Amino acid sequence: MEILITILSGVLVTAATYLILSKDLLRVILGSAILSHAVHLLLMVMGGLKKGTVPLLGEKPNTYTDAIPQALILTAIVISFAVTAVFLVMAYRMYQETGVSRHALLRGNKNE
Amino acid sequence: MNNVIVFPMVLPLLTGIILVFFRKHIQLQRWMSIGVMAFVAGISLYILNLIQTKGILRLDFGGWEPPFGILFVADSFSALLVLTASIVTAICLLYAFFSIDRAREEMFFYPFVLLMVAGVNGSFLTGDIFNLFVCFEVMLLASYILISLGGTKIQLKESVIYVAVNVLSSWFFLVAVAYLYGTVGTLNMAHLSQRIAESGQTPILTVISILFLIVFGLKAGLLLYFWLPGSYSAPPTAVAALFGALLTKVGIYSMFRMFSLIFYHEPQVTHTLIGIMAGLTLIGGSLGAVAYRDIRLIVSYNVIIGAGFILVGLAVSTPAAIEGSIFYLVHDMISKALLFLLAGTMIALTGHAKMERMSGLIRNYPVLGWLFFIVMLSLAGIPPLSGFLGKVLVSQGAIESGSYILLAISLISSLFVLYSLLRIFKQCFWGETTISEDEEVPLGKGMLIPAVLLAAASIGLGLGSELLAGYVRDAAVTLTNPNVYIEGVLVQDE
């Protein structure tokens, strides 16, 4: 199971890298969102996907799944959500201000 | 009680939150923000002295014993950096009073500066690697806002690049944390160091350490500095000075922690790599510093040279070199802030950023000119000033360990620093005066006082380095002997 999820997160990283290297700013932001999905999956895999119940003490089973990676992912999700929101607004402002959404067009001194 | 070590992070955080509610009360915002930073500077001086008598301080949040809970650890190194950061922030805020326009001030400028400093101080003090990530994000999110606040075209363009690069480096940070947790199974720095020492640094751990090197290289401008010159020349002067003084230094601090506390078993791989990267950074930064004619870009490339120089000390890693790096780090925070403030003032007075558009400023603004002269000598490492001792100690360490190439590159880079700044000084301050008496823009006291304070700090640091030497030596002892840190954290004292 770990191998499958690792491959999946690898595919996500590939797609994200491709998107981030493209010319359009919106694609870059999408790429960064996919990148964060990949790393959240990776964090989960690294904690181990051994069978066990949800980490709730009321369940009273023999084993629980590791609770730390879940806490880490929860934190990372909130952070990446905030950063993506800021990034999107920034892209929107840049589009309003300059009229282009392709950051590659903003090279040179003309816009300084 | 050790509770005092939480204040450098919590006080700016709380004040920042409170000030959000007083948006239109600019005077209140100004005095509260500068007051709290001065207070934090006082507290961190107290912490620094407390460490000298009581050893490494530790604060377990919620009473959870070290490997299980998050904790703050204050050793001399982090306390010294917190102290310097607080002083520099207070002075930059003073500069911001007189230079930031009202629209920006009303748009939560002061709260965001305080939140950024909270992230910086938190990163210096934390003893947990995921908490370090969170503090980095606190600092970065505030810096995203500060770099784009005002929304001019150039700011928006540079902030988009800045955010994209930092999202990527934060991603690498998370990947590295995931791998590290998967391999070692802990997140506490001291416990990590202990477990790695027990099992030996296996190849996979060396790979993870290189991943951390990429992360902090992106943050600190070590070789991966392509984003830095543009981003640091876009925001207003006070913000650029804060960035130049604080943000890259947090990356450098983390690199010191990582490679002296946790990944110190394979120096022939990791430290050699840091050495190569530092050497290339110095070369690239030197070339950039002499290539451009835009003052802001020259100053930004000097930040890169500074980062490269400090990490030469880490690459060499003898006690003398580490001590030199710490001296140089403290000096660099102060004099880079001063350099940014002076460059920003020059641009504000003349309205141009290009060197050839200004000339003979020394006649109109003599104090400004001599301040620039002082910071130039200080950065080049001329003896009575603050940059000298750090450079001597790093060079001594490099000679002891036989890394002559690094020694040569770092000393030649000092010449490039001197040349690039001397070029600004000669072109802009000497020559024929182009501004006539009645066209002269008055240089307010408010813009001059912060620069004078920083210059005084730089001279004081150079003349009074004996006062600081005890703290720096203690910091270097902790950095070169990981066991001191581990015992300070993991041995239960209650």
TrEMBL record, chain B:
GO MF annotation: an example: NADH dehydrogenase (ubiquinone) activity
Pfam families associated with the record: Proton_antipo_M (PF00361)
Compartments, record wording: Cell membrane; Membrane
Transmembrane ranges? Answer: 6-22, 31-48, 68-95, 107-124, 130-149, 161-184, 204-228, 240-264, 270-292, 299-322, 334-353, 365-382, 402-422
Record-annotated NADH:quinone oxidoreductase/Mrp antiporter transmembrane domain positions: 128-416
List the GO biological process terms: ATP synthesis coupled electron transport
The UniProt entry lists membrane topology as: Multi-pass membrane protein
> Which keywords, in A-to-Z order, does the entry hold?
Antiport, Cell membrane, Membrane, Transmembrane, Transmembrane helix, Transport
| GO annotations of cellular component type | plasma membrane
- InterPro entries in UniProt: CPA3_Na-H_Antiporter_D (IPR050586), NADH_UbQ_OxRdtase (IPR003918), ND/Mrp_TM (IPR001750)
Family to which the UniProt record says this protein belongs? Belongs to the CPA3 antiporters (TC 2.A.63) subunit D family.
Listed name of the protein: Na+/H+ antiporter subunit D
Q: What is the lineage of its organism?
A: Bacteria, Bacillati, Bacillota, Bacilli, Bacillales
